[in-house]
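Re: How this chain folds, sequence and tokenised backbone to follow
How to read it: Take the token row as a discrete description of the fold.
Start of record: The labelled sequence and token lines come straight after this line.
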Amino acid sequence: MSIDIEFVGNAGDKPKTVTFNDGNTVTNVSVGVNQGYYDKQQNWVDQGTAWFTVKPFGKQAESQLKHITKGVKLLVNGSLKTREYTDEQGMKRLSLEVTARRLGIVHTDRQQSQPEYGSPQAQPRASQTQSDPWGGNNGIDAF
């Protein structure tokens, strides 16, 4: 079973390509998504990071791979699947894998330090808005 998913996260490292004996290759990029929420006092409550193994599919998604390095913000659209495996200690684990139909690099002109939640500075300026994440040239490299 697979579920359609779309999310923004940060590349955990540069993409890794593995070539098999039969000549076929597979490329994976690890993408982390910070999880959390703002409480009633507007304080961020961190709930950790969800890690996805993203497998680009097709020439469109693969064309972005050469531009991805650790920390690059990515917009991912694809099918989510879970895979169960046993780790080195013999523990059963669950892996989140996304076959990416679309993979875009998000460009922002925001400063490194983000304004506090709810402050007037937290409202996006016209140059920060992105109305079409897959088309146009609104801060995201479409493919």
Summary: The CA atoms of residues 3 and 75 lie 17 Å apart.
